[in-house]
Description:
Helix content: under 10%
Strand content: over 45%
Low-confidence stretches: 1-6
Radius of gyration: 15 Å
Amino acid sequence: MGLENNTGRTDFDFLVGEWDVANRRRADFLDPRSPWEEFPGVTRGSRHFGGNANVDEIDFPTEGFSGLTLRLYDPAREEWSLYWSSTRTGTLFPPVAGRWADRRGEFFGDDEYDGTPVRARFVWSGVTADSARWEQAFSTDGGATWVTNWTMEFTRRA
């Protein structure tokens, strides 16, 4: 699965294959009191460049859009950069970068949400052969406080 070693190149190998995804997303990404919306997704992950790249495409059938994440591993920095795009924009969002430690992947980057500068954080945790968890949080105060605004619970398809 890759999370047992420090080479990095196999960190995202667990995503290879097809997954059902239970999504929870806040209606307003910056308001911790904002209600949660729930919707399904299906993602397909693949490994490239001998493990130094990973791609997954996710479809949100009830939401009317799809997304794609490109993950690139830099062996010199021992760090991953994660890039997101969706059919809503057709552009790459600014990357988040980081690494895995103690079976938890944390990735940070600067972005903007509705005109407000934010620090973005992606966290991968709970990875097993058949499940994983991803969450996104934004901070408007440089990382002192975070609002978790999107979670995904992955279950491998049979």
